[in-house]
Model the fold of this input.
Amino acid sequence: MKSITLLTEYCVGSGACVLECPEVFDLDEEGLVTQIDPDPAEELWPKIRHAAAVCPVSVIDLVEA
Amino acid sequence: MAANPRNRVVIVGASAAGITCAEALRRLGHAGEIRVVGAEPDIPHDRPPLSKQVLDGSWAPEKAALISGERRDRLAATLQLGTTATALDVARRQVTLDDGGTLPFDEFVIATGVRPRLLPGQPPAGVHVLRTLDDALALRADILRRGRIAIVGAGFLGLEAAATARHLGASVTVVEPVEHPLRTRLGRSAAARLLDLHRSRGVEFRLGVGVEATDVDPAGRVRGLRLSDGSAVPATVVLVAIGCVPNVEWLESSELEVADGVVCDEFCQAAPGIWAAGDVARWKHVSLGRTLRIEHRLNASEQGLAVAQNITGPPAPFVPTPFFWTDHYETKVQVAGVITADAEERVLDGDEPNSFLHTYYVDDRLVGALGWNAPKALMPYRRQLRVGNALARR
Done:
């Protein structure tokens, strides 16, 4: 079971996640991260992991049980 | 595993680049030992909040931790804090520490970052720098106690601290030798606009003057700054924010090339199996066609990640699109790419009165973009810069 949690209160709107994985992440009207694909396909997970790793404030928390 | 010659990774530097590298190594499948050695004694903390949320008190210090305790446990790495590396023996592949120990390694990552530049002479009490959590807490206490601060340096750190000091109700004077600060970082009009924003919030600027000397009271505490035009600024709290220097002195006896940072190739490699990441790394950016040393927070993550990828897999050149953000009052400024002096500036007003984009072109090619309260609107330009970066590589 995989899940993505966004600790939005830390988000600074760097958009690094959006550049890495635009299929799953976008910036909302306030410029904060939002998940646009509620159930990403398996093939997207390498990019999702890269997005989580590159985020400068560790907003994206992944659980891959 | 014992047969694997690239088993043991030692990372010196436990801040953003070092920690990101360690986490990425595990995620990418490195099963051998990882040891991260950090000079600071505290649990690694993030630095951008130090001039904002930690300084203004809206965050308890723990909230600025770089990774949670749970992530530290998942990391399965040894974190050796409060320990400084003192020498590197490239041939024998070992690093010497200030506790007298030596650590052998198969792969080595230098992530020792930078430290603040100081004014000449021994700093008197009341003169601060802002780099660590302890710095931020001490500065906050002093600002609250005294209510008045002089900031030397109108760079991003100095101005962010100025905004926070105003928020804390202190009167603020910023002293800066350059007549038009931040022009080379933000372009002419955004730089002017940022200073105007500060002026409108009551920050006093003394531009085009430097600090000649600090005035000290009989108890040894600073009481003012004497400036190069003969004038004086009274202050019992001073923040020196005049830039940083890379922590590379410990490598001078090694055979590595050191020139304003650790010199690396396009893979961030300084020597076989010896890498550098973050503020300390001067590496060859093959798209921009020159070496670069970037002191931005995002670069620390991206480069730490790139080094982990190059250690665990086929090496790829590190070709990022530089990006930084800086926050002042309610204004969020973001810059992607490189705004060069010869670039043509094109202004795009946003939908809101206090929101706009500046784009920068050289020979009709997009080289940089600035967003002022416009993170979403900036994204297409950042994508374009990223693609342009990749194309220029060929």
